[in-house]
Amino acid sequence: MAKAKEDKVVYHTARQNKIKKSVGDRIVDVLIYVIVGLIGISTLLPFLYVIAGSFATEKELTERAFFIIPHEISFNAYYYIAKTGEVFRGLKNSLFVTIVGTFVNMLFTTTFAYPLSKSYLRGRNGLLNMVIVTMLFGGGMIPTFIWMQTLHLYNTFWVLILMGAINPFNMIIVKNFFQDLPAELEEAARVDGCSDLRIFGQIVLPLSKPVIASISLFYAVGHWNDYFSAMIYLKDSSKEVVQIVLRRIVLLAGGIDTSQFDYEAQGTPPDKAVKMAATMFATIPILVVYPFVQKYFAKGVMVGAVKG
Amino acid sequence: MAKTAKRKSSGSAVVMDKKLPFWKFVLHHKGLYLMLLPGLLYFIIFRYIPMAGIIIAFQNYSPFKGIFGSQFVGLQNFRNFFRGADFMMLLKNTLGISLLSLVLYFPAPIILSLFLNEIRHSGYKRVVQTFIYVPHFISWVIVASITYQLLNVNDGIVNVLITKLTGSPINFLGKAKYFKGLIVGQSIWKETGYGTIIFLAALAGVDMQLYEAARIDGAGRWRLMWHITLPSIKGTVIMMLILRVGGLLNTGYEQIFLMRNDLNVKAAEVFDTYVYMKGIRGAQYSLSTAAGLFKSVVSMILVLSANWLAKKFGERGIY
Question: Measured at the alpha carbon of residue A156, what is the angle toward residues A153 and A158, in degrees to the nearest 5?
Answer without folding.
Answer: 75
